Amino acid sequence: MTVVISRPGLRLSEFSVGAMFLATGFAALTIPTLVSLANQSWSREFGAYGPIVLVTGLWLVWRQVPEIRHAGVPGSPWITVPILAAALALYAFGRAYDFLTLEAAGVYGAGIAVLQSRLGSAILLKHWFPFLYLAFTIPPPPSVLADLTSPLKLLVSLAATDWLHAFGIPVARQGVTIFVAQYQLLVEDACSGMNSIVGLIAVSLLYIYLMRGSNWVYSLVLVAFVIPIAIIANIFRIMVLILLTYFFGNEVAQGILHFTAGMLLFATALSCVFALDRLINYFVSRRAEKLA
After folding, report:
1. How many CB atoms lie within 10 A of CB 94?
2. pLDDT of 262-276, one tens digit each?
3. What is the rounded CA–CA span in Å between residue 82 and residue 87?
4. Around Cβ 289, how many Cβ atoms within 10 Å?
5. pLDDT reading at 15 higher than 60
6. 16 three-class SS
7. Residue 254 pLDDT > 60, yes or no?
């Protein structure tokens, strides 16, 4: 059954009752999860990149709407049903036990299942990047974050204190606790570099897709450089905070300058990624010219 709506000045648009039903059901899943993400993840420094990924990911999908609508065909229910069943199971478990990672993964899987049922697998595979990019909105599990951030916190605190000590700054370290003058600083999870790594990877992939297309080999190569860039940026961030604490006091270092230093170094790291992309592309172009 199809309802046809006609308005003056607009061309006819067709709204499938089945599509409206799917959209309503998907919205019922998505809205509570978005509220949970906003309260538990996006409002914190680690998950601050989430809204950016969501908005830019939806924009990427919107750019492909004309081609998707033209080429899409209904997908096989033998593919849709298992994906949807697994997604709803994840969502129900995550919602019941307040496991945000599984809840968000369930919503993401349900969205993929709905799109597969309406458009087919071929069109999703052809435009794989926007849908893969949107997966960055799923927050990593806390246990995984703890395992990953612990060695990174040790690394950035060790490097920052060793470098500053070499320049005569009275700084010492015990684990992830840094002592400078009469102050004691604790390197928290947000300063470990994981937030910069995940955020930089997401933004870098978006940049690569817009500038170079969906070349997954090139994406992997550039992403491999993103990780050390993010770690070095966070080492300098810790050094800046130590210097601010030493020269201006703890209140200054932990105030607005703490957030400003993080944003400035993230922007600097992102600029390094852009410059590296230009450098790689330059050498690739030169090599292609020589082989031509």
Report:
1. 20
2. 677 778 888 888 888
3. 8
4. 8
5. no
6. strand
7. yes
Mean pLDDT, the chain, whole residue set: 79
Q: Provide CB contacts within 8 A for 70, sequence distance 6+.
A: none
98: left (phi over 0), alpha (psi -120 to 50) or beta: left
- pLDDT number for residue 8: 39
List the structure tokens of 73.
């065909």
Dist CA 285 CA 3 (whole Å): 53
Is the pLDDT at 50 greater than 60, yes or no?
Answer: yes
Cα separation, 145 vs 143, whole angstroms = 5
The residue type of 235 is I
Whole-angstrom distance, CA of residue 60 vs CA of residue 82: 27
Whole-angstrom Cα distance, residue 28 to residue 7? 29
Sole residue written with tokens 């922007």: 267
> 42: which 2 tokens?
């996006």
Chain centre to alpha carbon of residue 33: 17
Q: What is the pTM of this model?
A: 0.75
How many angstroms separate the Cα of 60 from the Cα of each of 53, 209, 216? 10, 10, 17
Identify residue 162 by its one-letter amino acid code.
Answer: D
φ/ψ (deg, to 5) at 185? -115, 140
47 HSE (CA, 13 A, CB side): 22
Domain boundaries, the chain: 2-138, 143-291
Alpha-carbon distance 256 to 269, whole Å? Answer: 20
| Catalytic machinery residues | 191, 237
**Which residues are CB-neighbours of 122 under 8 A, at least 6 positions away?**
71, 73
User: pLDDT tens digit string along 141-167?
Assistant: 877 776 777 778 788 888 888 888 888
CA distance 241 to 260: 11
Distance CA 286, CA 118 (A): 44
